[in-house]
Prior knowledge:
With 396 residues, the protein is mostly beta strands.
Amino acid sequence: MKKTKTFAFTSIYVFFIILFFSCSEESDRGEIIKESIIIDIDNPVEILFSQLFDTCYFVPLASEAIIGEITQMNFGDKYISVLDSKVSNSLYLFDWKGNLKSKVSAEGEGPGKYIFPQYFSISSGEDKIHIYGNGSKKVLTFGVDGEFQSEFNVSEFGSFQGLKFSNNSFLIGVSESEGGSRFINFSNPEFSTLRSLEIPKQIEELPGNMGKENYFYQEKSGKGFYYQSVFSSDFVNFNSNGVNSHIHFSFSSRGIENIKSKVLLSDYLTKSKDEGFAYLASNHVDAGNLLFLDMVDFGQGALGIYEKSKGKAYKVSRLVNDMSLMLNISAIAGAYNNQSGYLSIAIPYFVFDQIRSQVDFKGNSYEEIIKNVNSEDGETLVLLIYKIKEEINLDL
């Protein structure tokens, strides 16, 4: 699936409250292990779905949910949560059959209201929804019924770079100013800081905030995270105890890192399209012993796979759908793919129906499930959700 990436500059000039560190602990991380990984884009590989995924889900979302554009999704045991921060500025909660359970629509000023909802997270018990409003600089907490519960102003933390909720603590990324120190903070639900980690200075930080939607990527184990800055080739692997490793990616050829000093960030996409350069984008997914890498090559979305145990990375020409037969994958579909353990695609029902009509299922085990996906509204979104295997062993 092809995608176009557009970005907009926003300046970062926010003073960081020094008092914030008075209750922080020093990180005792010792020597940081640096790995240099070359992504082989000259010999792309083809991989079968059955090598990576154990289950395919097809979920037609309720037509009464008017979703303009999916910004972020979360797949829980009970609920599928969808944030539309571009059109409706609302969060929708569905069951796994696509029935709408509740909706949070609190755009506005004042208590219990957010402006420009940018990130959300669901508590581990799936009983609370936390939404960060970029315009209001507040995190609002709602029940799964959509009722407002509480709010907290996070502007004192500095320039905000993402919010995650894991193991009953918030993960907040901040920076002092453009080019200044960057920190990852672990806070409890009341936002009194538990621990603050400084991102090592040697980690590449490109100037400017290009509208990046994902900075943090949770490890599939749930015990740690990856951090990546805007268009950076560097990843930081960390947990609440400190930074574990520093991974630097480069390309076997045509890597834009070779001409970064000569290219403005705003020209990355054009340079890639016109001259065939490749670079890392910003929608990566952890799959345990693999990391799915979101890339741009020749101006189009592309997919890479990093095998952690082997220290090898490859460009994937396509993932061949030998499971449901419905759709092959050649790129990570969108910014909503930021949850470990899943890859997903959202398409209108009329597109789903067209694809379905062209498939010869020949008794495929998913045939009945797929044929039972129906909607009277052709614009209703259908989620194609692929659950990643617990253990993946590739012979590439």
